[in-house]
Amino acid sequence: MGKVYLKGLFFAITVGFLGFVSAYYLTIKVSDRLINQEYIKLEHAAKQISIRFQDAIDISVNDLEALQAFYSAKQQDSTQDEFNQYMAVLDIEQRHYIQALSWVPLVYDDKRDEFETFLVSQQSDFRIKARDKNGALEASKRKPYYTPVTYISPYHKNKAAQGFDLSSSPTRHASLHTARDSGEMTATSKIRLVQETGESYGFLIIAPVYQKGPYPKNPQARARLLLGYVTGVFRIDTLMENAREQADDIGLELTLHDIEKSGNSLLYGQAQDVVAFSFDIGIPDRHWQLNLSLNKALKETIESPSIANWILAGGSLISLLLALSFYALQLSIIRSRHISLLSQQLQIQNHELENTVADRTKALSTQNGILNQHVERLESQKITLSRLMHESEFAKRKAEKLANDLARSNQDLDEFAYVASHDLKAPLRGISQLSNWMVEDVEEGNFEGIPKILGMITGRVKRLETLLNDLLAYSRVNRHESNLALLDCTELIKALFPLYSPVSGFKLTIEGDLPTFYTLKAPLEQVLRNLLNNAFKHHDKSEGKIIISCDEDDSFYTFMVKDDGPGISSDHYEQIFKMFKTLKSRDEVEGSGMGLALIKKIVEHYHGRIYVESTLTKGSAFYFTWPKTILDVSD
């Protein structure tokens, strides 16, 4: 009997050991899978951080290209007011990661005194400066040429850099020459900014500006035709701020490296021995690398999941219980009276287990079928999404081609090319960003927001098409000859009014007699039509009154179109006649901002003028003059 007990004990220990080994193996497998899943989630989050960081750099490069286009088109000395006006258009202060944008002309030594005298008339304390051996700023010593920071925005936090000669710094000087000789944007290595007083570092992106004409094809020609540079100034800490906040929320630590030919330069953060994720960042003429590492707490949480410990503890307990149960079973075998009963109970348990396994197998098969259907549906949606993204990209390329063709075909648009470029790129950047959001939602399996995003993409494409059509109409104003015809202005206005009146609650009042005379019908009709449409579109009530009258002198008729709408502040009298300018956002009032600019161009073409008188909450009156006699219809 003792031998039987020892044999039973041996088998019980063996079963317990095998159970513990199985539990330990299961724990390792579950832990590995949990760790792998967590790393996949972290990789996706890290990728989103790198994408948003790259977007900030790309938007900054676009703003710098716009400023480069402004100075390339201007081709003459600009004033502080002109620079400030253009900066107001770009509105870079809303993008806090841009420290400053500036204009840096090339000034030869024989023109230095004249240049400084001109700048002092705008900025009383201006002078060309350089650092002395102690690092303090002083008046630059004489040398063959200078590249001083002349105009800079925002001015209030970058005043210290004004007048600083970039070519006096070896690092900046090398980057200036690289940009000049290559004709491309160039980024400097890590530098200490002039406007910084602490330990913060930054870098510059430099774009060359050449004299107007054929693009210089070699470094010698580029050096000869160089006018200066536009520069973007960036504080690395500020540029990394959004990425750092996102990384801190997750538990990641950031480092940014400049991968140079001579080695690896650390731009931000502290060097890490182990890098979890690494992404290349596109920066003009340089190779940056964004590395993300797990902080200690996150690493411990991921690599030591608590559920694995519970599995191991539970498995060990089950193994112990199983060993004890087996030992008890062995003891029960000794008792022959219980063999039959235990066998029957075991058969019943096995039958129940088989039924349970069969039921669970059937349920698993059903769930697999549903999962396959979801996968097929997802593949179909991915194909549809790919097609929509292709169409969006095609629309983007088509819009860019139309904008370029329009710029080439109409030299009259040279003076506002940089404004058109900025307004055209805004919807395109919106389309690109929305497409990225849509891809992110698909990758996360979230399809609820896809229709809304597609609707927003369609709206921006329509807005872009509206802008292009209005630009084309603007460029073609008065280019087609027309014949003089007898025009009854009263009949014309009565015919136009019901076409543009949005509701029956609007009434038309014609004060006095409107003229009947020989003139060009098409342009005059276009002016009256746009003024009526403008009065209805910007009216703030469902009913109102439109008054039209006309006075005359020896040479001109003076027409008045008056409404009783919300009125216009006197601060905006000049702004509303400029292209692309609206007093409300384009999401509130659909339009391109070209209507009054188009009217102004038509009226001034025929030697007339247009102006507005308005009182807030009491309406606006638009006046324009039209010649009584048009001698040369092709003028």
Short characterization:
With 635 residues, the protein is α+β, with helices and mostly antiparallel strands.
Q: What's the layout of helices and strands?
A:
Blueprint: H1 2-74, H2 80-90, E1 100-105, E2 107-108, H3 112-120, E3 129-131, E4 137-139, E5 145-146, E6 151-153, H4 170-182, E7 186-187, E8 202-210, H5 219-225, E9 226-235, H6 236-239, H7 241-250, E10 252-260, E11 263-268, E12 277-283, E13 286-294, H8 296-303, H9 306-334, H10 339-409, H11 417-443, H12 450-475, E14 485-488, H13 489-500, E15 506-511, E16 516-519, H14 521-537, E17 544-552, E18 556-563, H15 595-605, E19 610-615, E20 619-627
Helix pairs in contact: 1-7, 1-9, 1-11, 10-11, 10-12, 11-12, 13-14, 14-15
Strand order of the largest sheet: 6-1-9-8-7
Helical/strand content category: alpha+beta
What general outline do the C-alpha atoms trace? flat
Number of distinct helices? 15
How far is the N terminus from the C terminus?
127 Å
CATH topology of the largest domain: Beta-Lactamase
CATH structural class of the largest domain: Alpha Beta
**Which stretches of 5+ consecutive residues score pLDDT under 50?**
none
Largest sheet: 5 strands, antiparallel
What is the total tally of β strands? Answer: 20
C-alpha Rg (nearest Å): 37 Å
Share of helix among residues? 40-55%
Domain module count: 3
CATH architecture heading of the largest domain: 2-Layer Sandwich
Task: Quote the average pLDDT.
Answer: 81
